[in-house]
Amino acid sequence: MPSQSYDEILRRAKEELSEAEQKKLASELRSHEPQPAGADSVYDAMARRGLVGRLTSAPADLSTNPIHMEGFGADAE
User: Fold this and answer.
1) 13, 17, 37, 53: which sits with the fewest CB atoms below 10 Å from its CB?
2) Residue 77 clears pLDDT 70, i.e. is over it
3) CA torsion 54→59→65→69, rounded to 10°?
4) From CA 19, how far away is CA 27, in angstroms rounded?
5) CB 44 within 8 A of CB 38
6) What number of CA atoms fall less than 13 Å from residue 23's CA on the CB side?
7) How sure is the predictor about 76, in pLDDT bands with cuts at 50, 70 and 90?
8) Taking Cα atoms as reference points, which of 39, 38, 43, 67 lies closest to residue 53?
9) Which residues have C-beta within 8 Å of that of residue 25, sequence separation ≥ 6?
10) How far apart are CA 47 and CA 53, in angstroms?
11) Distance (Å, rounded) from C-alpha 53 to C-alpha 55?
12) Element (DSSP H or E) covering residue 19
């Protein structure tokens, strides 16, 4: 297959794919975009929205004590 320019690929996608297929392709491409250097972490994004430290009924050592992870991820029957 000969090398195609980015513009040619976009033109063909618009012509040959249904609207649903175009949306799926766009979603797939966005999910594989590299994150820019210095991008916010999940913690940063949650802190900006005031969601860090909001859980008041959890044990103080929830994130550091391994006992709280017992059974986590085990298949429920």
Assistant:
1) 37
2) no
3) -80
4) 12
5) no
6) 3
7) low
8) 43
9) 13, 17
10) 9
11) 6
12) helix 19-31
At 35, list the tokens: 């994150």
The 10s digit of each residue's pLDDT in 35-69 is 777 778 888 888 888 888 877 888 888 888 889 88
The verdict on pTM exceeding 0.70 is: no
Structure tokens at 23: 């949306």
What per-residue confidence (pLDDT) applies to 55?
79
CA end-to-end distance (rounded Å), the chain: 51
48: which residues sit within 8 A by CB, 6+ positions away? 40
